[in-house]
Amino acid sequence: MGEYMGQSTDKKALSLFSLVCMAIGLTIGGGIFVLTSVLSKKLGTTLPYFYLLASFPMFFIIFPVAVLGRYFPTNGGIYFYPSRLVSPRFAFLITWIFLSTASFGQVPLFTLACSDILFQIFPFVSKDLWAFLILTVFFLLNVLGLKPVLFVQNLLVSILIFLLGYSIFRLTDLQTASLISINSFPSFGIGLETISILCFTYFGSNAIIELGNETGKPKHLLKAFLWAFPIVVFIYFSFSFAISTLGTGNLGSGNSEYLFSLIQNRLTPTEYKVFLLGGPLLAVVTSLNGIFLIQTKSFIGLIEDGWFPYLRKGSESPSYIKIFTIIYILSGLGLYLQWNLETLATYSTVGWFFVILAQLFSLYPAKQILKENSYFPKLFFKTEFAVITVLGFGFAFLLTGILLYRLYEDEKLLGFIVVMGLGILYCYLISKFGKQKLIEKQNRKQEILNLYLKSEDIYE
């Protein structure tokens, strides 16, 4: 278990500050700008309060996952926790869904979003070339190792927060801000729909548990979430509040054009360019940087467990460069084909929800393992924590259902079923003909217990 999933040789590579930056960077993406534009047309001055309301169910969903990472720190938790605490085959399937659709859809979509912004400022290079250059830069950065990735992530997130703060300060017009009343809010049904949409903007900070082996202090995984989450909530509320004070623009314009025209009218030309670079661009770039790293950790976990035997020689751990290269090629292919990128990105989000549900469910068998061995960490066994976990599972299940229903309404559910079917088929073939040996249940339990014993909580 010592080197499972590419365990870092420098256990203090990830400080609390780095974890907070990673969590913020993975959470704040382009969605806040698109959704703020779309929803501000309908909701006006009430939008900031819906961002606040959406944060509550997401806290219940993500907090228990952060606790899971805190007590059982490991790399590649997307695959590891479900494989050891639920089912190895089920864990493979949900990881397959997430990794394949993220590589072919989400990463190319993010790079194209970055290229659109850069093209507005530097139109002398084509958008497709900008996208390829961005993808290549982050591939090379990740090949250099974890420390360069963390340095860049820390720097970019710091700049992102500073420039977003400056933009919020410049955009907010307190003279036009008005008090809201109950009558200002839309109907109950529209309100629930809005909250469910905005919930997706808070995903990301839970992904830091994928890097549990990279820090010498597992409690920092939980602390990082407790720092990052309120910072993101504050930024979302403040940004949407600032936009709500700008009045209404051309309601007939496109979604992104509507928001950016309001902002452009408020800022000087130089400030607007700085906003594009420091707001939407950095928001997407920091998410892209984090996703590259997260994908690799879980991919290594699949290889370590024998799901891709042709990528591993004997007992040797898979090469990081080889894994990054495979992800780079897959994402480059997705960028070249540009086949239904938004749909594939939605499939990736559904896959991410499956992962969250599996991780939340994993808390129960993890608790049983601790009980069997007479370990009772206070936070893990509190009644309040059990209630939060149940609520989180309920909210995650509801949001997953909403996503699947939207895919059904848009006649895109069949594609998701195909992706899942391919995963099931591969799982069957590799189990039958690839001589893939699943880890025995007792050994899986022992691995979980070993993780807990290695966390510093046991010695406090």
Describe this structure in words.
This protein has 460 residues and is mainly alpha-helical. The chain has helices at residues 16-27, 31-43, 47-71, 77-85, 88-121, 127-144, 146-171, 188-199, 219-244, 255-266, 269-304, 320-337, 341-372, 383-409, 413-433, 441-454. α3 (47-71) packs antiparallel against α9, α6 packs antiparallel against α12 and α13 runs antiparallel to α14. The longest helix is centred in the middle third of the chain and has 36 residues, at 269-304. Residues 1-11 have low confidence and may be disordered.
Concise structural overview:
The chain crosses the membrane at residues 12-36, 48-69, 90-109, 129-146, 151-169, 189-209, 221-243, 274-294, 320-339, 345-364, 385-407, 413-431. The protein is mainly alpha-helical and 460 residues long. It has 16 helices and no strands.
Query: How many separate domains make up the residues?
Result: 1
Shape: globular
User: In the CATH hierarchy, what is the class?
Assistant: Mainly Alpha
**Count of DSSP E strands?**
0
The helix/strand series, from N terminus to C terminus, equals: HHHHHHHHHHHHHHHH
Into which percent range does the helicity of residues fall? over 70%
Content of β-strand: under 5%
Q: How far apart lie the N and C ends?
A: 23 Å
Could you please say which CATH topology applies here? Amino acid/polyamine transporter I
Specify the CATH homologous superfamily. Amino acid/polyamine transporter I
Quaternary structure of the protein:
single chain
Rg calculated over all Cα atoms: 22 Å
